[in-house]
Structures are given as C-alpha cells and as structure tokens.
Design a protein that fits this description.
The structure is a single chain. The longest helix has 25 residues. Helix 1 packs across helix 4. This protein is globular. Strands 1, 4, 5, 6, 7, 8, 9, 10 and 11 form a 9-stranded mixed β-sheet that branches. It has a two-stranded antiparallel ribbon with strand order 2-3. With 263 residues, the protein is α/β, with parallel strands linked by helices. It is built from 10 helices and 11 strands. The two termini are 36 Å apart. It has one domain: Spore Coat Polysaccharide Biosynthesis Protein SpsA, Chain A (Alpha-Beta Complex), CATH 3.90.550.10.
Length: 263
C-alpha cells in the first residue's frame, strides 16, 4: 500500500494549562519524554507514513525531535492556519494525515489501521469515531464530548485523513467547523435546521451525517468507526496526564506478564 505524509499540530500555547512552566502543551513531559514525541514515534512506527511536518515552536521541538521530523514550521495565528501551513510541503499529495500532538497513547498499529481503512474508501476526508461504551470501558471517568446517533453514541478522534486539494474550496466552512469542533450543537446549526433537530432527537444515522457533509462541501467524506479509543483521548489537564501515566504503566505490566508466560 502507498505511503502518505503526515502533519503534526503542536501549536497549542496554553501556558500552564496542564503544568506550570510549560509554554507549549506538546512539550509536556510524560515519563521523561515530551508528549509530542510519543505521537511522532507512533507515526514513525507505521510503515504507511513517509515524511512528517510539524507546526509549533520550532527551536524547542527541534531540540527534542531532531531528525525524526522532516519539516519544522513555526506556528501561525489559528488552528486552521496551522493546518494550511503544515500541508504546504505536501500540497500536491492526494492524501495527508493530520494529527494533533496531544494523543500520546496512539501507536503505529493504530495509525496504520486508520490509514488503510481510509485509503480503501477513496475519500477526500476521513474521520475516526469511537463508541462511547468502548471509550468508557478503556478510560472510565474520563470526560469526552459525545454525539448520539441512530447507530450509537460516539466521540471523535484527533486524527484525520485529508486530500489537501479540498482545503481551499472548503476554507470558510472548515474554519467554523474547527472553531466549533467541541460544540456539536453549533456544528449541527451550520448543517441546517433539519440536521439540528435530528441531532437533538438522536435520529440521524452515520450515513446521513456523511451525506450532508458531502453535499455541503462537494467532497467525498466518511466517518470510520475504530476500536482504539486512544486515538481520541487528548491531554488537556493534570488529571489527563495521570490517566496517561496509569495507561502506560498498565501496558508495561501487560508486556512484562506476557514475557514471563513465554519463558
């Protein structure tokens, strides 16, 4: 299968939001390693990822990541401008992966699976969603924004599969979509009254949502139900950091137990 390039968004400058003294959230240390490096390592562990660009404070990012990243680009004034800047080295690509820097539990296997599923669909835009029941089972007590649909209740991931050529024509809509990304009611208002009512009643199906986006933006878009909630659990507050540390400790214990059983 063809390799694709990836953009990592590390421009979040919520100083002290997660830990005092950290000017950029992506550089937050978790078990002695900056959070963004877990994301970069996951991308590098996927055989389907080629080059990587990263948007953020270039000097400290270079100090930590070195040649793991191909293109370092300084942060712009908004999330959408960061996306556009990150895509510039790959403007002629048919598909690019866009990932946030605050999902340290993601793995190369998850990245590969999402890319494969997206490529098989042949869409301009693919977005992962995770069932609420699965997310709460894996990460009990963690707060997430959920949307109730006819098919089930879902939360979204922090990674997208995108055809760069659709960004320009969809810019105005995309800016608003990014602005309201954690406010599903405002998002639904952008999609029309009928859509809003359907969302309130939980009567919309995944194909109906996909069709509405496709019609509005004149693109081929698809939601992909995935089985790995790690793809959407980002780090925004101190309790999230503790949750990630517990997760890593649990994974290490599982690995150690497997090794013991194989001896």
């Amino acid at each position: 299968m063809t390799e694709i390039n990836a953009v990592v968004l590390a421009g979040d400058s919520k100083k002290g939001a997660v830990q005092e003294g950290i000017d950029n959230k992506s550089l937050l240390p978790i078990n002695g390693k900056p959070m963004v490096e877990y994301v970069i390592d996951a991308l590098r562990d996927s055989p389907l990822v080629d080059k990587i660009s990263i948007i953020g404070p270039t000097l400290p990012l270079k100090e930590h990541l070195g040649d793991k990243v191909d293109y370092y680009i300084e942060s712009r004034d908004s999330l959408f401008e960061n996306v556009k800047a990150g895509l510039e080295p790959f403007a002629n690509d048919k598909a690019v992966l866009v990932v946030t820097s605050d999902i340290p539990m993601i793995t190369g296997e998850m990245v590969t699976d999402f890319i494969q599923k997206s490529m098989n669909l042949g869409c301009d835009f693919c977005y992962p969603i995770v069932e609420k029941q699965l997310n709460e089972k894996r990460f009990p007590g963690v707060e997430r924004t959920y949307v109730r649909l006819k098919d089930g209740t879902y939360t979204g991931g922090n990674i997208i599969f995108l055809n760069p050529s659709v960004v320009g024509p969809c810019e105005e809509f995309a800016r608003k979509l990014i602005e309201f990304r954690k406010q599903p009611w405002k998002t639904s208002r952008m999609l029309g009254l009928k859509f809003l009512v359907g969302l309130l009643l939980g009567s919309l199906s995944i194909p109906e949502v996909e069709e509405r986006f496709c019609r509005l933006l004149d693109i081929k878009a698809s939601a992909i139900v995935v089985s790995y909630p790690e793809i959407g659990n980002d780090v925004d507050k101190p309790s999230d950091v503790e949750m990630v540390k517990r997760y890593f400790n649990s994974m290490q214990n599982q690995t150690a137990n497997k090794m013991k059983n194989n001896i």
